[in-house]
Design brief:
Helix content is 42%, strand content 15%. β5 and β6 form a beta hairpin.
């Protein structure tokens, strides 16, 4: 009888220990998206994905960022290539998945990437369902703005796709961070000329990777990527995602 009681006490203590360990485990933020979010190759620098800057916004050791975003991907190709399944298989309870597609989904001339509005919504809903099935937390994001101005005002270039993300968020009660609106506001604050510093704008000879120079109004400079990551952080605070806000560096 005494031995049985010892085993029961040991079992209870082990369960208590595991509960504490799991509670203290640093959550992982998985990033699923396209080139605006992705880690860049050395020969593409100084181009920078905003997801590369996200981890530094948290206290060291408290949050892990696992950036699975890839250049040129859409919801369609991310699924077809098996990247989404690999991400889902890596999820643990309490992790987060930031989902930001749209830049490539809208490209009708590319069947590998294109997702019709109906398919785009279905893919996003599928992502949400898969994440929740692993007891993790999905966060939907609209695409960040491209740098395009007309008459001195920022022009939205993603058609109906941002609104489709908002619809899925409402229909499935998913937290939404509206990166499109946030980055449009940033562009407007910098103005048509000033906003060039947020993107990959280089003069000929300025960087060895781009000897002829480049004017890219989609992909970010390190400075722009940091600003966009700050916008994501602001969204996390606004949405009161307590599991992440408590680990943020106070600013």
């Amino acid at each position: 009888m005494v031995e049985l009681m010892r085993l029961l006490i040991l079992f209870v203590l082990m369960n208590l220990f595991m509960t504490v360990v799991l509670a203290q485990r640093a959550p992982t933020i998985f990033l699923a998206g396209d080139s605006t979010m992705a880690v860049k190759a050395v020969d593409k620098r100084p181009e920078t994905g905003w997801g590369e800057m996200l981890g530094r916004k948290f206290k060291p050791g408290t949050v892990k960022v696992d950036n699975r975003a890839m250049n040129g991907r859409s919801t369609t190709s991310f699924i077809a290539e098996g990247r989404w399944k690999q991400l889902v298989d890596s999820l643990r309870k309490g992790d987060y998945v930031f989902i930001q597609f749209g830049h490539n989904d809208q490209k009708k001339d590319n069947p590998v990437r294109y997702a019709s509005p109906e398919d785009y919504k279905a893919n996003l809903a599928h992502f949400v369902e898969d994440v929740r099935s692993k007891h993790a937390i999905p966060i939907l994001m609209t695409s960040i703005a491209r740098r395009r101005f007309e008459g001195g005002k920022v022009v939205q270039t993603h058609g109906e796709y941002p609104e489709l993300v908002r619809q899925v968020a409402r229909d499935h009660r998913v937290t939404l961070i509206d990166m499109g609106n946030k980055t449009e506001a940033i562009l407007a604050s910098y103005g048509e000329l000033g906003s060039k510093k947020l993107f990959l704008h280089l003069k000929p000879g300025e960087d060895a990777n781009y000897p002829k120079g480049i004017e890219d109004n989609t992909h970010l400079s390190p400075y722009g990527a940091d600003l966009v990551a700050e916008a994501a952080i602001a969204g996390i605070r606004e949405q009161k995602i307590v599991g992440l806000t408590r680990h943020m560096i106070d600013r």
